[in-house]
Amino acid sequence: MVIRRVVLRQFRSYEQATLELDSGLTLLAGPNGIGKTNLLEAIHFAATGRSPRTTRDTDLIRHGAPLAYVRVEWDDPVAGRRVVEMALHRQHGKALRLDGRKRQRLADLQGALPIVYFAPESLALVKAGPAARRGFLDDLLGQLVPGYTQLLHDYQRVLAQRNQLLREIRAGRAAGSLLAIWDEPLYRHGQAIRQRRRRLLDELAPLAAAAAGRVAAGGAAGAGVLELDYLAAEPDGRVEGGAVSSPEGLAAFHREEVARGTTLWGPQRDDFALFLDGQDARAFASQGQQRALALALTLAQVELIHRRLGRWPVLLLDDVLSELDGKRRRYLLEAVCDLPQVILTATEPPEWPEGTRPRVIPLPLGPEGEAEPGWPG
Ligand SMILES: Nc1ncnc2c1ncn2[C@@H]1O[C@H](COP(=O)(O)OP(=O)(O)OP(=O)(O)O)[C@@H](O)[C@H]1O
Predict the structure, then answer these.
(1) Where does ligand 1 bind, in terms of residues with CB under 6 Å?
(2) Which residues form the AAA+ ATPase domain (predicted)?
(3) What is the mean pLDDT of residues 330-337?
């Protein structure tokens, strides 16, 4: 995949701007606060329907404007030139057009423009809490597996309603017997999510182990033999062990769930462990090793997307070069410089790998006055 053009209207700090891109390495360079991250965020938003850094979509709309608009045009090696357009209205939410056709569901974006986004927060993936690692799996599954985003959405709806009911039962406003109604969909959707996450992790593990080996061999010391293990949390605090193996099995925990007002079973409590030479890297690896593993997971993600979708994702590296020491920085650039497209941000150009011909785009971008086609109105 090669993104050719990004058009912004009222997105974050941009009133209007057009970014023209080429294949290969592109650096968006400029001082802090100039809008480098905003550009990668816009690409992420158009490709996935979400921002990588906020869950509140309206943050993306330029202050004082009623709506934001992003258009990304890219070349797909099979389908040719494609276009995604996202409009985001303060009151009416998001609207999507793909190749000029209005789409009702964001899930229609699945697999269209695969991206991998790597930012300083991604480097903390190993030492961060379980939510970050669940998010890593869910984001990847959302791009790879048709229907996964919808499945997650359905599960979250069931979970929210079940939690609401638990609190009503606790307050004496609902009968405890109603709970069983939610156990079946909770269990069914929850198991489906776990199964997909597990399968993904099984496929990712050898790629991540190989990448970790390369990161180590590339001079970014600290990697050993890497294993990934999905951890399904059980309500009694155990991991695995099958305390709950059917929807009926949830009944044993109803009393405690009512007392605590929250659901104690399910993939919203899961995690995955990274074992480095048999030791849990979440707890035992040095910070340098943890960052090397996060890098390995990202490189594995790029390969997995290629393997599953048959196309290389666009790699977005937001401000990570300054976070890495010289050896890791060199390794990362060498590892990714042959991808069809890598877009980086930094305040200063790095030392580029030999033989590459990166393009540096200085920011701020010049304003661009092209009239928009009549959408979103
Ligand atoms: N909704 C918004 N409306 C207007 N301006 C915004 C909005 N959201 C963010 N900004 C502005 O965007 C700028 C930040 O842009 P961005 O995060 O892309 O900078 P950056 O070049 O990546 O900086 P750094 O190098 O420090 O990471 C800030 O000046 C901020 O005030």
Answers:
(1) 12-13, 30, 32-38, 59, 61-63, 319, 345, 347
(2) 22-367
(3) 92
